[in-house]
Amino acid sequence: MTNNDVMRSVRYALDLKNAEVVQMIKEGGVELTALDVSNILKDETDEGYVACSIETIHAFLDGLILSRRGPSDRPVDEEANTWINNTVVLRKLRIAFSMKDTDMIATMKAAGFQVSKGEINALFRATNHKHYKKCGDQFLRNFLKGLALTFRPPEDPWANSRASG
User: Fold this and answer.
1) What 3-state DSSP class applies to 130?
2) Residues 110 and 142 sit within 8 Å (Cβ to Cβ)
3) In angstroms, rounded to a whole number, what is the distance separating the alpha carbons of residues 72 and 101?
4) For the chain, where are the E strands, in sequence order?
5) What are the residue ranges spanned by the domains of the chain?
6) CB 5 within 8 A of CB 52
7) Nearest Cα residue to 86 out of 39, 112, 121, 123
8) How far apart are CA 39 and CA 56, in angstroms?
9) Cα–Cα distance, 10 to 7 (Å, whole number)
10) Which one, of 145, 147, 132, 138, lies nearest residue 94 by Cα?
11) What is the C-alpha to C-alpha distance for residues 63 and 138, in angstroms, rounded to an integer?
12) Does residue 162 register a pLDDT over 80?
């Protein structure tokens, strides 16, 4: 998945406004304008589209962690923010939402994707561990879909008619 896809998906799942995204990125250590964020959130085919840089996606995810959990006591590892992959994104989302294995399994289940605790643990092992597994696009896409369904459940079209009847 592209960095832009991740940012769009998280923004949608949490129903964030562009100003809130700008603030999260700022808290993560990168200064952007609302126009910059708007261009990052555009579809690749739209005029004015800008690819989301590694620094920006890290700042966004770090800002998300700060906004949901507060500052960390750990020292910042600047070298870790020089590259990104799906596993790093998944790890930061897991931290931001304070998720345990069971929470992640439930999120994946909400998206219609069955996953075991062992599969979740394999994603977070050291890369040189014999049971390490890379997080693929399909896994991350389903996790983000599950987040959206968790935070923005589909409305029941019959809810209003039952409540009034």
Assistant:
1) coil
2) no
3) 21
4) none
5) 3-154
6) no
7) 123
8) 13
9) 5
10) 147
11) 25
12) no
- pLDDT recorded at residue 153: 77
Decide if pLDDT at 161 tops 60. no
pTM (predicted TM-score): 0.85
- In 3-state terms the chain splits into helix, strand, coil percentages (rounded to 5) of 60, 0, 40
Give the closest residue to 41 by CA, choosing from 84, 67, 12, 83: 12
Given a contact cutoff of 8 angstroms between Cβ atoms, the answer to whether 26 and 63 are in contact is yes
Residues 115-144: tens digit of each pLDDT: 999 999 999 998 899 988 999 999 999 999
Mind listing the pLDDT tens digit for each residue in 62-101?
999 999 888 776 666 655 667 899 999 999 999 999 999 9
117-125, Cβ contacts within 8 angstroms, sequence gap of 24 or more: 123/87, 123/90, 124/87, 124/91, 124/94
